Every structure is written in C-alpha cells, then in structure tokens.
Amino acid sequence: MSQWADLPKELLEMISKRLDLRVEVLRFRAVCSSWRCSVSPPSFDQEIPPFFLKLPPPIRAPDPIFADAVLMQTTICRMEFLSNYSNSSCSLSNSSLVKVGESKHGKLQLFHPISNQETKESFISLNLLDLKFVQLSKACLLKWPGKTSVFGINKVVVFPLSGGCIDNCELGILAIYHEGKLGYWRYGDKEWTLLDDRNFEYDDIIVYKGQFYVVDRWGTVSWIDSSLKVIQYSPSLYGCGGQKNLVESRGDLYVVDRYLDGERRTWKDYENVMDTNGNPLRFSRLMRKARPMAVDFRVYKLDEEWGTWVNIKSLDDRIFILGIDCSFSVSCRDLSGGKGNCIYFYNSLYEGQGRSDGAIHVFRFEDHSIDNLAVIPEFSEIFWPAIIGSSA
C-alpha cells in the first residue's frame, strides 16, 4: 500500500477527473489518507445541484412558507460488492439497485428506485472500498422543502441551456403537468410555455440517445427539437391501455402500455373550479381521489424500417422498472435475487411525483399475474435497502 500511497498528486487528480459518479470519487478518496488529501471532495461541476425554484401557476405550494420547490438530480446505480461483506448487522446481496441523491451540503441521500421514498439507511455502515457503482439512469425530483412532493407535476426532465457548470439562470425544464400537458419553463419565466396546445394527453418523457422523446396515451411517440417543436416520430399505437411509459433497453426504445381498471385523469374535471373564497383549488385538494390500479401490461417496440409496432411477448432475462420519476431496464443476470421477464411498477393511490401512499407491484409476463411486492419478498432482493412494505 505504501507504493500506492506515494503516487504523485497530479496523477491522482487526473484519475479522479475520469470518475463519472460522485460516489466513486468518495470511494477513491477512501483508499488512504494520502489520496484523500490529494483529491478534493466531489463538486457539482458536472451534475445538476439542488436548486430552489419559484415555479409559476398552475403549480402551487401547499403552504405559503414553501414558496420555492427543490429540484435535485438522482442517479440509479447497480451497487456491486467486490469482496465478502462481513458486517453482520446488515444483510446485503452481492449486487443491488440503489438510488442516490446528494444535498447541497454534500450529504448522500438514498431513495427507493421505484417509489422515491427516502430511506433511513446510509453508506456510513458500508466500506466504500468493497463497492463498485455502475450508473444505469438518472432522474430529476421536484419536492417542497418540507419533503412533500410537488402535486401536478407528473414527470420532469432538466437540461442546461449552456455548456459546463450551470446555475439557476441557465436552467430549463420540460415537464408533463396537469395530467397530460407538455410544458417548458426556463428559470425566471412568469408562466409555463405550452409546447402542444392540441394534445393534453401526454404520459411520459425520456432522454433517449441525447434527445427528448414523449409519448401520449395513444402511444404516439414524438421528439422535441432544439426550437422546442414537437415532431411526430412514430405512428399511433392505439393500445387500449390507460397509461404509456417509455423505457430504453439495450439501445432500443420501448413503449409499455399499462391497462387500468378505470380512468386515471381527474384534473380536467376540475378546470377553473374555485373554492368558497374565490381562489383556485390547490393541487392537494384535487388529487384526493383514488387512482385506478394496473390490471395488465403490453410492451411494444417500433420497427423503424416498416414503421409498425411489434408486440413483445417476452422480456427474457430483462426487468423493466417503472419508477415514479424514471423508467429503465436491467438484466436479472446482473442482480442478486429477482427474476427476468417481469415489470416492477408503482401503484399510487393518488397522483403526484414522489408520493409514498401506494405500493410496489410485480407483473410477470409468463402468466400475466400481478402481485404486491410485500407478498413476494424474494423479488425485493434486487433493491438496497430491500423495502417490501405495502407503502414502499
């Protein structure tokens, strides 16, 4: 170890700059005191730091003291153990999914990859030298300072308006809000810019190969160009499901069609409704209506040569994860526990990003069965920590 500890500071700095994840920089600094002194703690230069944003109507804070929403970026990783973990106080698999965020003060925060529920676990009890992190996806989370989710925002993606390190003034947001409107907001704007005034039925948005793609409830996929114009990319799927999700898997883009036992959109029934004092009803009041539950799924892939949709009958070894703010794919061969050919998803009782009032379920393709994760605990082993409660 003494030879490694004597590496030149310039070389250590060069190596640290090639590390993509801040948690990897922390792991690098944990090797020895010499490395820790030679490499500065990870900064926010390459990633989006938590910001306080004063979002315009129709987004409304649940309380006047929460005037600004907090925007933070999270990273979904596959956490691998490189050596036997000897801490008997923690039961851990050899490879698990973990969602990591970071506060402005540099504190690592852990969230469940599906529900966004912040966990009480931390990396403090772990030796970072025993771990390897493989980045799978990134997501953005909007919440109020009191950790309450921002009602009315169904999905948000963030991009810098200029290269390099960004601040509030160089921040733009693409969001699906009001249960289907596609909007754009730049820091300082007094109102949202509606990108499509003819379609209020958008379901999901994703960054695929560096480009923004959206899908509506009919399965039509469109992309958004640099001028914020929405351009149709695929024909309509016309699937009978009530909710569509976009998932990238092994370089291809898939549409997941979720069949529901009822209509999930409720906001349009309450447009321009005022309370007894003549004020617009707040989102928190509007969303207090039970959401329909998923009863089946279909998965489609676009045949770009023929311009037709292909119904996928099996995911083979793959697992599709439909999180509240991010969807992604992973192979069960890379994880401990769990099985392939299934979809993990969140059944929320109420609409809103980051809520914890629903339950995680698993859909299995071989028999189209759906089970609460709480009754099949072996399927929870792919996550760390393995939260299996009905409210997870």
TrEMBL record:
Listed Gene3D superfamilies: 1.20.1280.50
Residue ranges annotated for the F-box domain, each copy included: 7-48
UniProt-listed Pfam families: Beta-prop_KIB1-4, F-box
UniProt xrefs under InterPro entries: F-box-like_dom_sf (IPR036047), F-box_dom (IPR001810), KIB1-4_b-propeller (IPR005174), SCF_F-box_domain (IPR051304)
Record PANTHER family: F-BOX DOMAIN-CONTAINING PROTEIN (PTHR47123:SF28), F-BOX PROTEIN SKIP23 (PTHR47123)
The name this protein goes by in its record: F-box domain-containing protein
Native organism: Populus tomentosa (Chinese white poplar)
